[in-house]
């Protein structure tokens, strides 16, 4: 097993990602397809919520991916800030839009699930929904700040700082929102889940989550490859103006 | 003055004089704060029991927004007039200078807001015996708002028209302080409820982290 | 063809339709950008090779 820094070399990364990325997409398609097929056609309706519990198979993986992408972004930012490996910043930049999309999807499917379950699109009492909303704004701030910087280097530094500050704050935000929501304890959508979830639900849910994880990895690799190719093209153009 | 002033106290004094130099400069956030709080009864109705239930929370929201109004310029002017370059060459750690500058900014633009919260609280039907303890809670929580706002201001110092960006960056970080602040008032700030300790903890956390983030961001802005 | 759901059917289809839209859109944007970047790089490299000969 080579050290992670082995792949910090863009050439090695390009070779490695070129070989791996198609398999990631294929694995993601199989696993996500399987979980959605199970969710829509196979699993039996939930005892209390009926068919609406089928929304869980997209909502819960989206929530996990939203958090995983932010964690990945924060770790990449830290690695970039300490060791200045260009690829780490490329990874952070690539993870942000995908993470934001999954966060938005989590919020939207949560609202759609909440309507038949609670009779309301939005429930402030549910700490998870509120935390994910704050996470969405952390993503927006990260992307807006990067976009406002006029050079790549500045965008990388500013992005790394705000991603690390945000990551340090996430546990505290989560803690405060949990306490606040517990004041007016309301129903929780995912109560049907928990350790008592039957294997009929658990297996497609977990495999689907793995599939979405593979998709996130594949999308990040593609976005990182795009970034590296754009830089090479810019370097070629710069060379021409010098010559 | 026997010795040259340290860059930390120089930045502190400079921030204070900047705030008051424009004449009514420091009064602007007070006007914004009072205006925002006074608009609420027009928006939601004037029933006293309704107002007293939400008045404390309204002031937290107004305080959070008011802290952002003055943030845009605090590090931009240092970048423009070269003060930032002097700080970078100073012996004192940049994080300490940034913290001093932000704290001075809180004194100039935040403390006046805190001082008028008893008056606004009275108008929003808060219980009279809670007004002064509540002002203390606003003061403690305001430090967290200004510290995180300062991080946003430092990050956007080199960005033109960065004001809205500061708000987008800082507002999610305000959530714990706003929650524990409102809970402190709900539990009765005069009794020093455990929520007050959590509120103070969010401010201490901000004071511990934000100066280093500001320093890193100011180094970036100076490049 | 389509499974029959209880009265929550429209919500289920809305959730999965939205998921297809968001995830499909994300994949499409990322892949289109990758293709554009690859073509641009290949074009510039080909031009350089021609100029070199």
Task: Note down, in words, how this protein is organized.
The complex is a heterotrimer of chains A (about 240), B (about 220) and C (about 55). With about 240 residues, chain A is mainly alpha-helical. In chain A, about 80% of the residues lie in helices and about 0% in strands. Chain A contains six helices and no strands. In chain B, helix 2 packs across helix 6 and helix 7 runs antiparallel to helix 8. Chain B has about 220 residues and is an all-alpha fold. The model of chain B has no long low-confidence stretch (mean pLDDT about 85). Chain B has one domain (about 25-220). Chain C starts with 8 loop residues before the first helix and ends with a helix. Chain C has one helix at about 10-50. Chain C is rod-shaped, with a radius of gyration of 22 Å. In chain C, about 85% of the residues lie in helices and about 0% in strands. The chains are: A mainly alpha (about 240), B mainly alpha (about 220), C mainly alpha (about 55). At the A-C interface, helix 1, helix 2, helix 3 and helix 6 of A face helix 1 of C.
Short description:
The complex is a heterotrimer of chains A (243), B (223) and C (53). Chain A is mainly alpha-helical and 243 residues long. Helix content of chain A is 79%, strand content 0%.
The proportion of residues in beta strands of chain B is: under 5%
Mean pLDDT of chain C comes to 88
Mind describing the biggest β-sheet of chain C? none
Order of helices and strands of chain C: H
- Gross morphology of chain C: rod-shaped
The oligomeric state of the chains shown is: heterotrimer
Class derived from helix and strand content of chain B? mainly alpha
Succession of helices and strands of chain B? HHHHHHHHH
Number of helices of chain C: 1
Regions of chain B with pLDDT < 50 over 5+ consecutive residues? none
Give me the secondary-structure category of chain C: mainly alpha
Q: What Rg of chain C is obtained from the alpha carbons, in whole angstroms? A: 22 Å
């Amino acid at each position: 097993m080579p050290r992670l820094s082995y792949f910090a070399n863009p050439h090695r990364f390009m070779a490695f990602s070129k070989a791996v990325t198609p398999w990631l997409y294929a694995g993601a398609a199989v696993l996500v397809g399987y979980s959605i097929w199970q969710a829509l056609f196979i699993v039996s309706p939930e005892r209390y919520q009926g068919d609406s519990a089928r929304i869980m198979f997209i909502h819960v993986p989206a929530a996990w991916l939203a958090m995983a992408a932010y964690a990945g972004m924060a770790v990449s930012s830290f690695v970039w800030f300490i060791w200045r490996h260009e690829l780490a910043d490329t990874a952070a930049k690539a993870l942000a839009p995908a993470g934001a999309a999954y966060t938005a999807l989590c919020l939207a499917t949560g609202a759609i699930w909440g309507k038949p379950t609670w009779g309301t699109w939005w429930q402030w009492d549910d700490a998870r929904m509120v935390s994910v909303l704050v996470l969405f704004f952390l993503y927006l701030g990260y992307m807006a700040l990067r976009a406002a910087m006029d050079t790549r280097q500045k965008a990388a530094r500013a992005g790394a700082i705000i991603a690390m500050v945000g990551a340090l704050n996430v546990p505290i935000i989560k803690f405060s929102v949990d306490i606040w929501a517990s004041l007016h304890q309301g129903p929780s959508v995912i109560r049907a889940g928990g350790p008592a979830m039957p294997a009929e639900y658990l297996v497609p849910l977990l495999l689907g989550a793995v599939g979405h994880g593979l998709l996130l990895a594949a999308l990040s690799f593609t976005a990182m490859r795009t970034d590296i190719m754009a830089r090479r093209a810019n370097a070629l153009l710069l060379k021409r103006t010098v010559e | 003055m026997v010795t040259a002033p340290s860059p930390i106290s120089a930045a502190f004094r400079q921030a204070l004089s900047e705030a008051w130099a424009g004449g009514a400069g420091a009064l602007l956030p007070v006007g914004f704060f009072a205006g925002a709080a006074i608009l609420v009864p027009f928006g939601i109705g004037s029933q006293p029991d309704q107002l007293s239930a939400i008045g404390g929370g309204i002031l937290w929201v107004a305080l959070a927004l008011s802290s952002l109004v003055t943030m845009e310029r605090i590090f931009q002017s240092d970048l423009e007039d070269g003060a930032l370059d002097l700080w970078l060459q100073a012996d004192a750690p940049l994080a300490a200078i940034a913290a001093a500058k932000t704290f001075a900014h809180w004194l100039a633009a935040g403390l006046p807001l805190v001082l008028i919260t008893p008056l606004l609280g009275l108008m929003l039907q808060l219980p009279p015996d809670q007004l002064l303890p509540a002002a203390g809670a606003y003061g403690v929580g305001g430090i967290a708002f200004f510290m995180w706002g300062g991080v946003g201001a430092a990050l956007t110092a080199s960005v033109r028209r960065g004001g809205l960006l500061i708000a987008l960056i800082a507002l999610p970080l305000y959530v714990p302080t706003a929650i524990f602040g409102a809970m402190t008032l709900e539990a009765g700030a005069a009794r020093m409820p455990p929520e007050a300790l959590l509120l103070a903890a969010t401010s201490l956390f901000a004071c511990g982290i934000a100066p280093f983030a500001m320093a890193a961001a100011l180094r970036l802005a100076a490049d | 063809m389509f499974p029959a759901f209880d009265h929550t059917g429209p919500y289920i289809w809305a959730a999965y339709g939205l998921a297809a839209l968001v995830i499909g859109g994300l994949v499409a944007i990322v892949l289109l950008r990758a293709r554009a970047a690859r073509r641009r790089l290949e074009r510039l490299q080909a031009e350089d090779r021609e100029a070199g000969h």
